[in-house]
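User: Some background: our group keeps a shared notebook of sequences we're curious about, and every so often someone picks one and asks for a predicted structure to add to the entry. Today it's my turn. The entry only has the sequence so far, pasted here. Could you supply the structure so I can complete it?
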Amino acid sequence: MKIVLMEPLGISPEKLEEVSSFLTAAGHSFTAYNDRAATADELAERIGDAEILILANQPLREDVLSRCPNLKMISIGFTGVDHVDVDYCKSRGILLSNASGYSTNAVAELAIGLMVAVSRNVIACDAACRAGKDKSGLIGFELAGKTLGIVGTGAIGLKTAEIAKAIGCRLVAYSRSQRPEALAMGIEYMPLEQLMQESDIVSLHVPVTPATKGLIDEKMLSLMKPNAILINTARGPVVDSAALAAALQEGRIAGAGLDVFDTEPPLPEDQPLRDCPRTVVTPHVAFATRESMVKRAIIVFENIRQWLAGTPINQI
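Assistant: Of course. Here's the predicted structure to add to the notebook entry:
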């Protein structure tokens, strides 16, 4: 079979050779691109007659997929798959597998890091110190003893809760279903409206679906305490950006830590959250650590190995 890796996976050439060598050893063709296609035409040309495709977060829509008649399987090096036309793939019988679990630690750690950065004014403190100033006006608050609201108790939400519990936070959550491991951790499930009202920190850990797009809207933001902060390491469209920007500009909430936005960074100048006060923003790096990139590569190639063996895993 012909297998194509569409974009770099963030690992060394040696590691790529290590995790992919079983393909050529079994007589398959494997091509790996070291950059991303600049246009849809280039992307379609690269895929060509490939039967298996690997990609990370490069958008892959029907306009490209419709020109790739031989595709049978796509191994996606990401947890979320909203950048891939899932419905079209299913209509074609193209199997999709993701890399669920590769970035659990990485994302949870950045979520906690953003909580600390916002609550302790880390960015402003850094600027003040470099400017020869003191801590005046920069006294923050501790996470210990605060109520952390976890929106979405999947693997990343639970790992974030686990770290926060060690810090000393009270844990509450909203999710589609209650998980036994969450209850065992002492997490109290409640309606979203109640969570928004009670939490000192709200941390988002849900995928983008029709049900979650715009989940945190003006109404939900209005329920938050004026001294509460919002953390988003999930997906940008889960939050109404304009409503959040207004709440921050008007001082109706205390701050936000954001790794994701409506569009992928670099952010345009008119992105409403780009220059908001009391925010710490990062360019969608929560998933990206040296360790997670290696885990991801192992998973995406194991997805292919298992599919070739007739035992597909991590199916979407």
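Suggested note for the entry: The two ends are 22 Å apart (CA to CA). The domain at 2-102+289-308 is CATH 3.40.50.720 (Rossmann fold).
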